[in-house]
Amino acid sequence: MKNKTFIESVKCAIKGLIYTVRTEKNYKYYIIIALVFLVINIVLKIELYGYIFYIVTAIGVFATECTNTAIEHACNKITMDKDSDIKLIKDISAGSVLFWGCAFFIIEFIFIGKALI
């Protein structure tokens, strides 16, 4: 089912984001963590390029979590039974979120540490 217009595509994407925010508890945690670090960055007056890294890594976490959610749903459509291959696919997908999360925290600690020194 292909969207006919760009606006329809954007509407579908927004629906997907809303679904992910409503149903994925980890996504809610990521939003809270990102907001906490944003406040810390503002209070510590982090340099402009610190915000650029913040935006890129936070969006990386959010985007890969959306992809991870989509992969999990696709796998669940294939089978809900215990399947080692499906588990591996889900674990690998979750690993991509973990990488982005680690990058986010490392970058934040570097900029916060630099601001506190």
Quickly list its features:
117 residues; mainly alpha; Helix Hairpins; 86% helix
List the helices and strands and how they pair.
Elements lengths: L5 H18 L1 H19 L4 H31 L5 H33 L1
Summarize the structure.
The protein contains four helices and no strands. It has helices at 6-23, 25-43, 48-78, 84-116.
How does this structure look, described?
This protein has 117 residues and is mainly alpha-helical. It has a single domain (30-116), classed as Helix Hairpins. The chain is built from 4 helices and no strands. The longest helix is centred in the last third of the chain and has 33 residues, at 84-116. It is globular and about 50 Å long. 12% of the residues are buried. The model has no long low-confidence stretch (mean pLDDT 95).
Instruction: Note the total helix count.
Output: 4
CATH architectural name:
Orthogonal Bundle
Structural class: mainly alpha
Shape: globular
What is the element string, with H for helices and E for strands?
HHHH
CATH class: Mainly Alpha
Number of strands: 0
- Regions with pLDDT < 50 over 5+ consecutive residues? none
Mean pLDDT: 95
Helix amount, in percent?
over 70%
Query: What distance separates the N and C termini?
Result: 55 Å
